[in-house]
Amino acid sequence: MDTAAAYAEALRRGALDPVLTRLYRSVDIAAQRDRYLDLLDCFESRVGPGPAALILAPGRTELGGNHTDHNLGVVLAAAVHFDCLAVARPSDGNMVRIQSKGFDEEIVVDVSDLAPRPGEKDTSMALVRGVAAGLAESGRKVAGFDACVNGEVPMGAGLSSSAAFEILIGRIFSELFNDGECTPLELAVAGRAAENDYFGKPCGLMDQLSCAAQGILSIDFADPARPVVQEVDFDFEGTGYRLVVVDTGGSHADLTPDYAAIPDEMGRAASALGQTHARGLTVDAVLAHAARIREAAGDRGVLRLIHFIEETERAAEQAEVLAAGRMDDFLNLVRTSGDSSWRLLQNCISATDPLDQPIPLALTLTERFLHGEGACRIQGGGFAGTIQAYVPADRFTAYTEFMEEIFGRGAVMPLKVRRPGFERIALDMIGGEGGA
């Protein structure tokens, strides 16, 4: 049986280093080893010795399909090496107690009561209760547990720290009480419902599904109840480019209205053409009925609808060219996607503070630095936070120095793709068994 003490002993003698290497690629393995040991020590000191499950959930980066998932579109996304890590054990009764590293206050939730609580809006407790409710609704068992959590997914960096936490909680319920049988789609649906209905933030399903399924994924949401997920077999490590995000320091606070306006305007624009969602419309139809759409959704609604149609087609094409190993074609599509987000979707600048424009500044500086090499685009939801860039490996150090002079030390974050196979680390994985 796995125990916190056995994990710690295996880590100290280096027996789990091969697993950590596959998880974190060329990232500092010694630092990850220390991180795991620190979390295990926290667990033993707070919960006590005995059985323990070591469970993980990664963040994600969007490679294509900017704001397409909520209108039944196509996205291209990848799980990344930044992750949420938990050590957990079932407890007696229905109380969930989570100690998160860096925070003195415990997350405490009674999962015998799964109704939304208005007073928990915008809190981690809401996410825990919401995930539990979603899994219970799908027929899964939920019960109390004790856990210590270390979240290394940077908050506000467009890497879906909240979705990673939601999937982590779902995985704990899955591993401890359901024999690990909860599917990635089940976990994702529960996480999205928790964020929408309990936490109070609108979102599609891309973030949660990408974190739950892992790898590079092409996801078609034409049927949102049964999205078609295809893994794209590609490794950026051998391309000569470094995939990075740049944290511009812009805050996501008070941006919910900006995010909510995008699906709202796309929905009103589609409704003007007799559809509930934008999927299935063509640019020719939009141009032929632009006056009608303007009246229903405004000028921006017309532009955002055109973005959706072309971005969905582009995301599908990006998956095809990656699968074929055509990196140059992929980079051209990234550039086109970035231009569409800026001009048509218009999620690079928040209307609430037009003088604050870190995203356009970071994009412009990156374009000037790259001089036609590589590519860059908005990362994730937009309006603030991060951009994504593909930087030639031989210029990565210079790019980092250039951008961090402006946006601060640590702003440039290289990403490694997390492949599927490590939802839970078991001690029998020592020696290379399991994983990707």
Automatic annotation (TrEMBL):
Residues 127-214 form the GHMP kinase N-terminal domain. PROSITE patterns: GHMP_KINASES_ATP. InterPro entries: Galactokinase, GalKase_N, GHMP_kinase_C_sf, GHMP_kinase_N_dom, GHMP_knse_ATP-bd_CS, Mevalonate/galactokinase, Ribosomal_Su5_D2-typ_SF, Ribsml_uS5_D2-typ_fold_subgr. The keyword Nucleotide-binding applies. Residues 42-90 form the Galactokinase N-terminal domain. SUPFAM superfamilies: GHMP Kinase, C-terminal domain, Ribosomal protein S5 domain 2-like. Transmembrane segments: none annotated. It comes from the Bacteria. Pfam families: GalKase_gal_bdg, GHMP_kinases_N. Keywords: ATP-binding, Kinase, Nucleotide-binding, Transferase. Belongs to the GHMP kinase family. GalK subfamily. PANTHER family: GALACTOKINASE-RELATED, MEVALONATE KINASE/GALACTOKINASE. This is Galactokinase. It comes from Pseudodesulfovibrio karagichevae.
